[in-house]
Amino acid sequence: MTDLTVASWNIRAGLGRDFRRRPSRTIGAIVDFDADVVLLQEADFRIPPRHAALPRMQGRIGPFEVIDLTPSAVGLGWHGIAMLKRPGTEVGAIHLHDLPALEPRGVVIVDLTVRGVAVRIVGVHLGLLRGNRRKQISFIVARLAELDHRPTVIAGDYNEWRDQRGFEAVPDWLCIHSPGPTFPAGRPFLNLDRLVYSRDLELLSSGVIAGPNAIMASDHRPIIGQFRHLSPRDAVRAAGSE
């Protein structure tokens, strides 16, 4: 049984590969996501007051409800990171942090209850420099260590194309997974978008979404992952089998 499905997409503020900004096209792709939680990067424009790149109707984008992360009413998220949820998903604590970097970056940490399962979803869009990315991962892990533990998924645009470098600060209680190449969207060969998840979750399946809207509406393709919550005994067995 799938307990949690998470999708993530850098939407480039709705600017497509044809260099046309068509929010309806972006929303059309999001509508097709069969997910409990959708994380978006570059969901707001960069210039203050950072207006939202996608319109919302009565607090929704397509079938998904927008979790309020913005300090103002004009944007969708925090440092351009937005989080959408399936109706019925309960929202608990929300933590918003600035990340250490030469450029403005942030992290979103939200506690949710999805079909009775308590989970923690973290949205990231890391920096362009590997040194900054290492510091940002260390910062995020430190903030998570300050909270009570619950099954955790850290999803987003990691801006890291290598599998063996840049993730040195990820602790052993987290697994790193790339569903496949996502950038550039037309002919992707770089694995920039990833799912990092705690070992009390089992990754059942994952993939890169390649619908016609998804591959045209941004320079990244979306990713999706399905997870099952493991019992403590099963989590220990899974760790021992590695």
UniProtKB/TrEMBL annotation:
The keyword Hydrolase applies. GO terms for molecular function: hydrolase activity. Residues 7-220 form the Endonuclease/exonuclease/phosphatase domain. Keywords: Hydrolase. It holds the Pfam family Exo_endo_phos. It comes from the Bacteria. This is Metal-dependent hydrolase. It comes from Pseudotabrizicola sediminis.
